[in-house]
Every structure is written in C-alpha cells, then in structure tokens.
Model the fold of this input.
Amino acid sequence: IVSKGAAILSNSIQQIAGERDLRQQALQRHNHEFSMLKILIQNRETDLHRFITIQNALPREILSIEQQLDDKQIISFDGRLKWKIADFQSKLYDARSERQRSIYSPEFYSSKTGYKICSRLFLNGINDARNTHMSIYFILMPHEYDAILEWPFHFKVKFSLINKDNQHHFVNFFWPDINSICFQRPRLQMNEGYGFENFISLEEFQQKQDQYIQDDTIFIEIEIDFISKPPENWSDSGQRLMEDEQHIDTIDGDIMQRALFSMHN
Done:
C-alpha cells in the first residue's frame, strides 16, 4: 500500500511539475508577446507623432511650393522686377536669429535674349550693417545668349522699396564698376553680388512699417536703366558683397527645401 501510495504521489508531483513548466512556458510566451506589443505601440506612437508633424507642416510647405511656382510662372523680360517678399516677419526672424540671413529673388531678364539677373537681400543686414540696415545686392547669372551681349555689364541699376500707394522709397542706385569681377561675363552659377550694405535703415523702416508691410508682405523693385549715362566724376556708393565668414546660416537644408531650390534652378 505504501509503495502504491508513493507511486501515486510521485506521479502527482511529476504532473504538477509538468503543469508548472507549461505555465512557465505560457507565461514566457505572454511576456514575449507583451514586449512585442509594447514595441509595436511605441512604433505606432512614433509614426503618429511623425504624421502629425508632417500634417502640421504641410500647409506651409504647400504655400512655399505655390510661391515657388508663381516665381517660375511670372518671369520679367524687361529689366525690371517687382519682388514680392511674403511671410516677411518669419523671414526677418530667421535673419535676426541667423537661421537664414539672406534670401534670393526670382530670376529675371533684361530681355528675351538679354542678361539674366537675380537679387540677394539680407533683411537684418550684413557685416557692419548687421542689425541696423537691410542690405541688397545685384547678381548676374549665366544665360545662353551671353556670347552676344556687351561685357562688362555697364548699365545703371536701381533698388527701391515700394509702399502701399505704389510709391518708391529708400531709393538707391549705382553705375557698375566695369573693372569689378561682379560685372564680367558669368562663368559660374552666379557672379559675386554688388549693391548696398546700408540699403534701408531698420529703425526708419520699423517706424513706418505700416506703409510698407501689407498682409505680411513687402515689395522691392529692381530696375535696369539702359538709357542714363553716369555724370562726369561720378563717385559710386555701391559695394561688392563681402561675405562675413564668422556668421553663417544655421537653417537645416531639408529635402523639401533642396527640392524647391533644384526646381527654382
């Protein structure tokens, strides 16, 4: 009887041990499945956060694309560009924080077969004009008809800020220094810029900003004068753009910005 009871007890113990092992294995499977589920939830949360970020940025990216398309569709061929600078406050903030100190205008032309040009604007100034003035520069770009044009470029260039009544303020102009590399036939993507460090006083602009900012937009006109001639003993006030290497832009060149830049060029 004792022997039979011991055998029954031994079988019971083995059965209990087997059930325990099965439960441990099941628990391990559940723990593994829980860990995988936790990772899956974390990945979904990451994907959701990324989606929300993209969704929030999408309207601004669409607006930027629309503006780029507008720039490509409205091209001037008469040597005059009325440059629309939208999102002005955002661009001014980027310039002050040195995320993006300068912006480029759309390209324009003196004629269908003429000079190809753009302008570069530092909304918070550059070099000695930083924090006191806007700085602006005229830039020649290579064009397929350059071989039949007059070089060096020698025509009067005028910059002006346009107020809400379409009147020109802060007018500055120069006749090119024909010995400067800025006005020779372009061999690279862009020539060096030439213009004015002290184009617009920021203090004076801010005092009268209601005259110039409409719907967070300002307008600057760049005009080439093919008729006027420089007076004798003319002393030009323009300057070659000298980059300040101690101050560089810190804005991230994301995929969208690079795509827009490629499209624009």
Notes: The chain has two domains: 1-50, 63-252+260-264. The longest helix spans residues 2-73. The chain has a mean pLDDT of 84.
